[in-house]
Amino acid sequence: MPDKSFDRRDVLSFASRGIGALALTDLLLRDSHAAQRKTTTTAQVSWPHFPPRVRRVIQVVLCGGLSQVDSFDYKPLLQRYHGTPLVSQRRPDVFFGQVGLLRKNDWLFRRRGQSGLWISDLFPHLAQVADELTVINSMYAETSNHTPATFQQNTGFRLNGFPTCGAWLSYGMGNETDELPSYVVIPDPRGVPAGGSINWSNGFLSARHQGVVLRATGQPLDELFPAKPIPSGTELASRRLLAGLNQRHLQRRGTSDALLARMRSYELAAKMQVAVPTVADLERETALTHRQYGLAGKTTSDFGRACLLARRLVERGVRFVQLFSGGAFVSPRINWDGHEDMIRNHGREAARIDRPLAALLRDLRQRGLLDDTLVLFTSEFGRTPFAQSGASTLGTGRDHNQNGFSVWLAGAGLRGGMTYGSTDDVGWQSVDQRVHWHDFHATVLHLLGIDHRRLTFYHNGIQRRLTNVHGNVIKDILS
Hints:
12 helices, 34% helix, Alkaline Phosphatase, subunit A, 15% strand, eight-stranded mixed beta sheet, single chain
């Protein structure tokens, strides 16, 4: 394995060619516009609002809709009612309009850990760290359409154009490192979610707060280094010219968020040339760590690398890391959208993430990082307790369900090994201690020391915020 470390000579050489030299534009102008940049790219709030329990966040997003009744929401009555119609005062309104017979859970549930948390055999490795999990079984969303539901999961709104949670944290809290982005996204190598980069958009916030995509498999970032060396004199002269043009532009037209964000990105790009190869070099980890994350396994390798990269990123000060499990809705499905065959679909997807995710929680705990890190496990909605089939048919798939589903959190400031809220007897609708995405986001911000009502940005005549005009902190899950 070639040595991937960088010495002083390497670092200096970056300054004379490639994107390393692009930083010169920003560096030459730093003194002249530092004050302007501060007022245009940082939150107009005094953070923290109260002592934070959490400093950083890792979010795992399951694209397609995880079945709550097959994972974390145990409904024993489904066994009794298996093969019978759902008793309801009105016909259920589901996405594809196919309301089949009730079907029991496809994976056996067991009590796990000292807490006795109910978790199914769909996630046998996560079951071993059950006492770390705080499960919310009473989530509900406003739509059962994948794309707007995913937007709402990430931004609090069903329409695009709004900043994601990661962008808000970058805006409100800044970063703990100036060598890496504050908001990093690790997509599923099989494909990106529907809508692509909209899912990690900065919205109306400064462009510097958009999520930066890093790949855990293969080259972490495109064009990190130049295709061929550029003579240092040529590069230096061109960058000095560009710096002068940018300075003239700022003097004539005043502060330009787009220009300042671009110059800031050049500066960050230079530093990333050194930081990214180091943080993405998973070969630096021990053989034991590789085995724990499943890096040698054909099924677990991709997500194992993503989880390990996430740990290395937060360890180096990145504020928000978002991992996606599943991509766009193409055929054949490469996500959690189990319309046709739940056992085949969820069985395949869970096998990819179960072991690596459990390893991530253990690793964070062992290193003391879970004492001030928050891990989120979310899906845009759940799935129906009845089959997606004809009214008198017991099919093998389940339709979308926005009315009741499960997510979990783990880490600092939480009561682990507990469930909060509940759905009805068959897992169709949340009925007790219902939780909307606004409540979920308000709670995440609270753990970070932020009052969700005070993290705002004035846009189009409105003081916008992640939680819109709603949201209540879920105090019962806090330690």
